[in-house]
Amino acid sequence: MKIKPLLALCRISNLPTVWMNVLTAMVLIDQAIPNSVQWCWLPLLALALSAFYCGGMVLNDLCDYSWDKQHQPYRPLVTGSVSVKTAVFIACALFLTGLVIVALAPFALMGMLAASALFATIVIYDVFHKQTAASILVMGLARALVFVVVLMALSAQWLQWVLIAAALQFVYTLSLTFVARYEHIRGKPYRGPVIPRMIAGMAVIDGALLAIVVSPVWLVAGIVLALLTRFGQRYVRGD
């Protein structure tokens, strides 16, 4: 089996935006509670939340298989480059990986509660998103819960700026999802890669917030991860 279809199935090019979400949450926790963050958890939680994201993308394609056969025939499951059986195994493995890592975090109980909420939100969205326009709220909630998982796993406290960061991504994800749905409704693609650029913009949103709250240098981190997202999207579709 070729690796590129697997990467496309997982939308792996979008992962830098998830990493920026995790980084933002950790920086804001450290700002609120100085010297409380164990930075060894940055790669571990980035891996966990990446697993949730990729698992959600795989499950999305499994749920949308019939629809994609008519509207998006380039999807790896539809072309047969990845089998349905393999996709089910990958989705289960990814979700399990995310849950296991969070279960090892400093505040495992609160982290697992948040991770379970994220998992449930992903499943609800993937199963029902073609049935109701209200599902865009669920999509926004899933992105916001990335911050909550990190917050609960590392501090078990409701910290204001982390929740504000989550709220900003919730609103931004709503706008992104609305724009993507309108593209399908209008029946023709936008001029230029509007959706991929908006996805990459998630990292810039986080960087801008950190620049205001912590230090302007964090805007550079957001821009770098946005550019990394766009670079990846040149090779693996992120929409």
TrEMBL record:
Keywords: Cell membrane, Membrane, Transmembrane, Transmembrane helix. Gene3D superfamilies: UbiA prenyltransferase. One of its GO terms (cellular component) is membrane. The keyword ATP-binding does not apply. InterPro entries: UbiA_prenyltransferase, UbiA_sf. Pfam families: UbiA. It is a multi-pass membrane protein. The chain crosses the membrane at residues 12-29, 41-62, 82-101, 107-128, 135-155, 161-182, 203-228. The keyword Aminoacyl-tRNA synthetase does not apply. This is Prenyltransferase. It comes from Cellvibrio mixtus. It is found in: Membrane. Its main location: membrane. It comes from the Bacteria. GO terms for molecular function: transferase activity, transferring alkyl or aryl (other than methyl) groups.
